[in-house]
Amino acid sequence: MSERHQNLAVIGHVDHGKSTLVGRLLYETGSVPEHVIEQHREEAEEKGKGGFEFAYVMDNLAEERERGVTIDIAHQEFTTDEYDFTIVDCPGHRDFVKNMITGASQADNAVLVVAADDGVAPQTQEHVFLARTLGIDELIIGVNKMDVVDYKESTYDDVVEEVTQLLKQVQFNTDDASFIPISAFEGDNIADASDNTSWYSEETLLEALNDLPEPQPPTDAPLRLPIQDVYTISGIGTVPVGRIETGVMNIGDDVSFQPSDVGGEVKTIEMHHEEVPKAEPGDNVGFNVRGIGKDDIRRGDVCGPADEPPSVAETFQAQVVVMQHPSVITAGYTPVFHAHTSQVACTIESIDKKMDPSSGEVAEENPDFIQSGDAAVVTIRPQKPLSIEPSSEIPELGSFAIRDMGQTIAAGKVLDVNEK
Ligand SMILES: Nc1nc2c(ncn2[C@@H]2O[C@H](COP(=O)(O)OP(=O)(O)OP(=O)(O)O)[C@@H](O)[C@H]2O)c(=O)[nH]1
Ligand SMILES: [Mg+2]
């Protein structure tokens, strides 16, 4: 085990090869043995899904295997000399962007997969925008399926140019992006430099992953653990699971779940199927709290110390950037907000200021509406209790995405919370 940890999201348009790439990385790093890939190959062929053997490492649900698409996010671990990686494979299909948001909000850095034969596609754009707004620092761009385009350098250059334009559009620092021509399926430039791309002499994907900057130490904020699921496990009882965003959880701590507003003493903490006395930021844990039953808490609750409980917003003020909206956004608009693992309908109560996105200065006070491309400060009223924090205090719990009509409309950061 390495001492250092990276949470990595794999994002990109449907079918561009994200799951295949994760399966390939696990195979190349020895986390998945060859005979398992062989079993998957047989199953995939039986289902008429030949070629999905690496994707099946990640796509475990029966429906995912039948349809050949990822539906929910899946986590896997692998280790290199530099890092212990927890890799989150996100779905690319437009119907499952809400699951991608959860995945991206758990990651430090991301690999964007873009198929060389397709280039920038709608969810390439949507995922890059969300990654940027949800606080992903660095992007590695795998230009995948190079085998399909005969490893042509000119095709690679075209895709690099197209993605670079997109990164600039969403104001991603392109110095923090590195591009690699790969074939997840054939294994080119994943662990070893490929003979098929003699025109490319830079890093392989694994080298680029090892060279990622170490994630910034988390803020000294109190414990915040958004609940992703709640299980009942025989012999233990109710086990909420999630990733610790900030702070530390110890056995014996008194904790509170908000907005469900229940709490108790932490009895057990489990990580990678082992009991541990404490867990830290970045750790994916399952735990048990005295007196808490399955119906007392739910996905979207945040667990924190009883004496510094997670904030529950009556209203909050936020800075938002509108990505796409068919018409205009006015006060009274009530789309679904996705923050950490929570999804709650919220009303935009007032549009307080329109900002100039390039200078960050106020362009207009109390505008009547905002539209695609605008940045604004707005006041928001959740229609159901929502736990959220000011981005300046706990950035990990201070960002959100706004979705409506099956697409991401906007994303933003919380400036101020008026607590209930
Ligand atoms: N030729 C070739 N095919 C690939 C490559 N990578 C993936 N594929 C194929 O592309 C198809 C989709 O691969 P997936 O890995 O499921 O794609 P995905 O991005 O995870 O798709 P979603 O999770 O549904 O968004 C499968 O048939 C793969 O075999 C590649 O490098 N070369
Ligand atoms: Mg997939």
From TrEMBL:
Q: Which PROSITE patterns match?
A: G_TR_1, G_TR_2
Q: Where is this chain's protein located in or outside the cell?
A: Cytoplasm
- Metal-binding found in the keyword field: yes
Question: Is-annotated flag, keyword Metal-binding?
Answer: yes
Sorted alphabetically, the keyword list is: Cytoplasm, Elongation factor, GTP-binding, Hydrolase, Magnesium, Metal-binding, Nucleotide-binding, Protein biosynthesis
**Reaction(s) catalyzed by this protein?**
GTP + H2O = GDP + phosphate + H(+)
Q: Which GO terms describe its molecular function?
A: GTP binding; GTPase activity; magnesium ion binding; translation elongation factor activity
Query: Which Gene3D superfamilies does UniProt cross-reference here?
Result: P-loop containing nucleotide triphosphate hydrolases, Translation factors
Domain Tr-type G intervals = 3-219
One matching Pfam family: GTP-eEF1A_C
What residues does GTP bind to? 12-19, 89-93, 144-147
What job does this protein perform?
A: GTP hydrolase that promotes the GTP-dependent binding of aminoacyl-tRNA to the A-site of ribosomes during protein biosynthesis.
Q: Which family does it belong to?
A: Belongs to the TRAFAC class translation factor GTPase superfamily. Classic translation factor GTPase family. EF-Tu/EF-1A subfamily.
Q: What is this protein called?
A: Elongation factor 1-alpha
